[in-house]
Amino acid sequence: MRNLIAFLAKYNHWFVFVLLEVVSMVLLFQFNNYQGSVWFTSANTVTGKVYEWNSAVESFFSLTKVNQELTQRNLYLEQQVAKMQESMAKKTQDINYAHKLQMEVLSGFKVYPAKVISNSLDKLDNLITIDKGSADGIRKDMGVACGNGVVGVVYMVSPHYSIVIPILNARSHISCMIRGRGYFGYLKWPGGDPTIAYVDDIPRHARFKTGMSIVTSGYSSIFPPGIMVGKIKRVYNSPNGYSYRLMVELATDFSNLRDVCVIDNAPMEERLEIMRAVQDSLKTR
């Protein structure tokens, strides 16, 4: 103990120097926008690289299960596509009709594949980190989806990584509708169960039933219409009694999320710019 006290007394000026350096660095980056942005970019790059290594290790040990699930899902999708093509060919007398229709739908937007390198489920404001950034064409407010359905929206971008606000975030509000019915509302996640979210503001005169699909409405200027969100599990009355609240079983398994696609829909971006311009003009009046 005496030696420790003597050591501290002998080098106390170095400890004071280090403490003052730490305090000055905190003040510098916290209260100066430029230095703070430089620090965020550098820290985000380093953190992203660490998350990427960790994700690579986890992905290696889960490849067997993922491949089994993908094989089963691909088989199911191939059967559905074959049935759809056969049905369309009979109705239109054109064996290439389904392919033409698919190309017409996909021609409106680009899709950038990415991998999830960090994901959380146990917070109220969960975030996802993906391994693509501005250098890869990713921009803020792009939609993110996976093979099963909607994931979230790009929130922040660095050159090689992006932060996504998923459905499992209290700040997420995605415009959805009941497939085949057209009634729409906003998907919200109150926390807790990562497989359940809620759609509010469905009108009382709407006709639907449990088990129906909830898809993106296309009204949010983020997602194209028709991307799977989940299925109606239960129906509640809203607190004021003027609308319905739908419990939705999410299609995306966030606990096993590895591969995603970032959607760049040019027409949607044009609509978003027009809406922003209108809002700015209204504020100036």
Describe what this molecule looks like in 3D:
The chain has 285 residues and is α+β, with helices and mostly antiparallel strands. It has 6 helices and 12 strands. The strands form 2 sheets. Strands 1-2-5-4-3-12 form a 6-stranded antiparallel barrel.
Helix content: 40-55%
The number of distinct β-strands equals: 12
Tell me the strand percentage band: 25-35%
Distance between the termini: 73 Å
Major sheet attributes: 6 strands, antiparallel, barrel
Mean pLDDT: 77
Shape: elongated
Q: Given the structure, what is the number of helices?
A: 6
How do the strands line up in the largest sheet? 1-2-5-4-3-12
Question: In terms of structural class, how would the helical and strand content be classed?
Answer: alpha+beta
Q: What are the secondary-structure elements, in order, as H or E?
A: HHHHHEEEEEEEEEEEEH
Low-confidence stretches: 101-106
Radius of gyration: 24 Å
